[in-house]
Amino acid sequence: MSFQDKVAVVTGGAAGIGEAYVKALADRGAKVVIVDLDQNAGSTVAESLVKYARQALFVKTDIADESECQDMVAKVCDQFGGIDLLINNAAIFQGKRKEGLLTIDSAYYRRFMEVNMNGMLWMTRAVTPEMRKRGGGAIVNQSSTAAWSGGDFYSVSKAGINALTVSLSRELGAHNIRVNAIAPGPIDSPATRSTIPADRIDALMSQQPLKRLGEMTDVVEACLFLLSDQASWITGQVLCVDGGSVTRL
Ligand SMILES: NC(=O)c1ccc[n+]([C@@H]2O[C@H](COP(=O)([O-])OP(=O)(O)OC[C@H]3O[C@@H](n4cnc5c(N)ncnc54)[C@H](O)[C@@H]3O)[C@@H](O)[C@H]2O)c1
After folding, report:
1. Span from the CA of 241 to the centroid of ligand 1 (angstroms)
2. What is the pLDDT of residues 160-181, one digit of tens each?
3. What residues are in contact with ligand 1 under a 6 Å CB criterion?
4. What is the 3 state secondary structure string of the chain?
5. Which residue is closest in CA terms to ligand 1's atom 23?
6. How far does residue 55's CA lie from ligand 1's centre (Å)?
7. Which are the catalytic amino acids?
8. Which atom of ligand 1 lies nearest, measured to the CA of 154?
9. End-to-end CA distance of the chain, in Å?
């Protein structure tokens, strides 16, 4: 799959799965935009790509702030002339509080939902006018199998993302903008190891058909497919990349 000269915005691109998306797109010719709160990590990723003759830009942005999303779009258009692709990946994941819906501090809950669910909408609203100017585009939202397993506010945010994905695909289809989501199971990453207790990971693995953690490459390849022209008639779908743990008939 080639993304030669496509402009791709990846939120949460400074670390973890987002960084893997950024590098995979840059390797396939895209001009990549790393959107993240983490200035140091984001600039380091951009600089390391530029050193290898890739086109990369870091724009510090809080996705929970719609005006910051719009400012980011203006900077990207100044530098790269437009936007073709968006991966809405950023979320509060590593280090998220482990508490139930009935007791979680309400200010924390509001901020969490503003980042993990509404941020994807603010980013989509900021980016899609530029996609329309280019005749279309593709968006992948990062969900999770937690959308089906329930548990806490994280699950609520991911179920919301699935619904956002379907609703936005309907609003944006007429503009040739496709909107899909990926729902990964646990991916072997530092964030997973520090967020999900080891015995919980073992229990999850024992229940799923393919008994291993996901690798970065598993989600990267699925995401690139959904962004690519090979998926040009696919929209409004949530693709589970999870070793078969979630099955729907
Ligand atoms: N790691 C897994 O096993 C797993 C499984 C299913 C889904 N996911 C989802 O994949 C995505 C990435 O997960 P990860 O493991 O790479 O997480 P991570 O915590 O390592 O990375 C998240 C990135 O998002 C950035 N971010 C957080 N809040 C932000 C904000 N307000 N504005 C801009 N950037 C912000 C962080 O700085 C960080 O760089 C998340 O949406 C997560 O929910 C992860």
Report:
1. 16
2. 999 999 999 999 999 999 999 9
3. 11-12, 14-18, 36-38, 61-64, 89-94, 115, 119, 142, 144, 184, 186-187, 189, 191-192
4. CCCCCCEEEEECCCCHHHHHHHHHHHHCCCEEEEEECCHHHHHHHHHHHHHCCCCEEEEECCCCCHHHHHHHHHHHHHHHCCCCEEEECCCCCCCCCCCCCCCCCHHHHHHHHHHHHHHHHHHHHHHHHHHHHCCCEEEEEECCCHHHHCCCHHHHHHHHHHHHHHHHHHHHHHHCEEEEEEEECCECCHHHHHHCCHHHHHHHHHHCCCCCCECHHHHHHHHHHHHCHHHCCCCCCEEEECCCCCCCC
5. 12
6. 23
7. 154
8. 43
9. 30
**How many residues are listed for the chain in this entry?**
249
Gap from CA of 11 to ligand 1 centroid (Å): 9
> Which ligand 1 atom is nearest residue 64's CA?
31
Q: Which among 87, 90, 89 is positioned nearest to 32, based on CA atoms?
A: 87
Q: CA-CA distance, 123 to 12, in Å (whole number)? A: 12
- Give the closest residue (by CA) to ligand 1 atom 7: 144
Strand order through the sheet with 177-184: 56-60, 31-36, 7-11, 85-88, 137-142, 177-184, 238-241
- The structural domains of the chain, ordered by start, are 7-239 (3.40.50.720)
pLDDT digits (tens, 9 = 90+) for 193-236: 888 889 989 998 999 999 999 999 999 999 999 999 999 999 99
